[in-house]
Design a protein that fits this description.
Blueprint (H helix, E strand, L loop, with lengths): L1 E5 L3 H10 L8 E6 L10 E4 L1 H10 L11 H9 L1 E3 L4 E5 H13 L5 E5 L2 E7 L5 E6 L4 E4 L1 E4 L6 H6 L6 E13 L7 H5 L6 E6 L3 E7 L7 E9 L16 H10 L3 H6 L1 H12 L10 E6 L15 E3 L2 H4 L8 H17 L6 H36 L9 H9 L16 H5 L1
Parallel strand pairs: 1-2, 1-10, 2-6, 10-16
Antiparallel strand pairs: 3-5, 4-5, 7-8, 8-9, 11-14, 11-15, 12-13, 13-14
């Protein structure tokens, strides 16, 4: 079986590994990625309990044997344990590199093409697909196509003709700082003394969060800057690809009175130190609006058709309130391979049947978690992070069960919010 995966991010790499973990010599994967190189960009990745379980299955650990696979062991050793959730916080590129290393070890089954953009997909007389690419003579035949190309998915928009993710009004910038880059700079060294996560605000609309990975990855500190555009003064505008956090913070500081400016002096200097020492300067202008795939549209559902399906953000992009997006993508990759293994891979009808079964079981889980994360994100802006209630214990257990969970949660995600929303 020939499989085309569009997107070389975490979801695409995980799917390639998962589909080649059962020693099936007849499975051959091609991954295509529009970017010409795989930069060490991105800020943080939350590897939650459900993601850890999925990653083990992706690597081929099945049944009662839950000994961490080498990939998981490595990530745990490089991540910061979050005691409250038993999850791990890691630099995003560390997770990508661990997956990429495993993919390269399977180069006889997995090929990667960088710097190519998919153009058309058509169905051949024999029932397989053929994909062509812009500005390239590459042509790829496939029995199965997996869209793992993120929130702005080409597969979702152009091939499956599905509604795109809806902008949330929140914009995000991400970057990292090597705090050892200048050994004499005490301001840079100060970041190494931070807790795992430190949040600072510029008014109600701007949030700067620092993630201190120094205890595990020497010198590494990541930052995430988020802005609610509808809460900004009319004089402050955002132009994706041009506007930088420095621009927005400076504009805010120029609009506050002298007392407020003095109170924010330390917060401002901290942000400027991080931003002006960002490892990849292009991260300062590289921004995006957080967007959510609306899974409540009954006439759309998951959205796959034929032998084309979606995984990760292309299927269920959600708000990052609890850092569950990546772990859900790992669940997709693990379960997709499980369902494909049940099919007769020489039969188009059999493959299609199993894809629809995969999508049917994933939809209610991802719909519930996406709704929960959207509500938590909105409440956190209005009430503050500390005022948002914890999950119901049964709901928390259901999330942690991951690939072994029931499709529907035992209690609605809405129950813990009922009083707050009515108020």
């Amino acid at each position: 079986m020939k499989v085309l995966i569009v997107g070389c991010g975490l979801a695409g790499l995980a799917a390639a590994i998962s589909l080649t973990s059962n020693d099936d010599d007849d499975v051959h994967i091609t991954i295509v990625e529009r970017r010409s190189d795989l930069e060490s960009r991105g800020a943080t990745f939350g590897l939650q309990i459900n993601g850890q379980k999925a990653l083990n299955q992706i690597a081929g650990v099945v049944g009662d044997d839950q000994t961490p696979c080498k990939m998981l062991e490595k990530l745990k050793s490089e991540g910061l344990l979050i005691p409250s959730t038993k999850g791990y916080m890691l630099p995003w590129f560390k997770v990508r590199d661990a997956l990429l290393e495993e993919v390269k070890a399977r180069e006889d089954k997995i090929k990667i093409h960088l710097g190519v953009s998919i153009d058309t997909v058509s169905e051949k007389d024999n029932g397989s697909y053929v994909a062509t690419f812009k500005d390239d003579n590459l042509q790829i035949d496939a029995d199965l196509i997996i869209g793992a190309d993120g929130v702005n998915s080409f597969v979702r928009r152009e091939i499956l003709s599905l509604p795109q993710a809806t902008g949330s009004g929140a914009f995000v910038w991400r970057g990292s700082v090597d705090t050892n880059a200048n050994s004499s700079d005490k301001k840079l060294k100060h970041f190494q003394e931070f807790p795992i996560a430190k949040m600072t605000n510029f008014g109600d609309a701007m949030l700067m969060t620092y993630f201190n990975f120094h205890p595990k990855v020497e010198g590494q500190v990541a930052w995430v800057f988020t802005v609610r555009a509808n809460m900004l003064p009319d004089t402050i505008k955002i132009d994706c690809g041009t506007t930088t956090p420095i621009d927005l913070i400076q504009a805010y500081m120029d609009n506050v009175d002298g007392d407020a400016r003095e109170e924010l002096k330390e917060t401002y200097e901290l942000a400027m130190t991080a931003l002006n020492n960002t490892h990849q300067p292009s991260d300062l202008s590289w921004s995006s609006e957080m967007a959510v795939v609306d899974l409540k549209q009954e006439d759309v559902g998951w959205g796959g058709k034929g032998r084309i399906t979606l995984i990760g953000d292309a299927a269920h992009s959600l708000r990052p309130a609890s850092g569950l997006g990546g772990s859900l993508a790992f669940e997709d990759a693990a379960l997709l391979a499980k369902y494909i293994a049940r099919s007769n891979t020489s039969s188009a009808a059999s493959i299609e049947e199993q894809l629809r079964a995969f999508e049917k079981i994933r939809l209610p889980r991802c719909k519930s978690i996406s709704n929960d994360q959207s509500i938590r994100s909105e409440l956190s802006y209005k009430l503050g992070f500390g005022a948002v209630p914890s999950w119901d214990p049964a709901y928390a257990n259901w999330i942690n069960e991951g690939i072994d969970s029931t499709p529907e949660p035992p209690v609605s995600e809405m129950e813990v919010f009922a009083g707050l929303i009515s108020d």
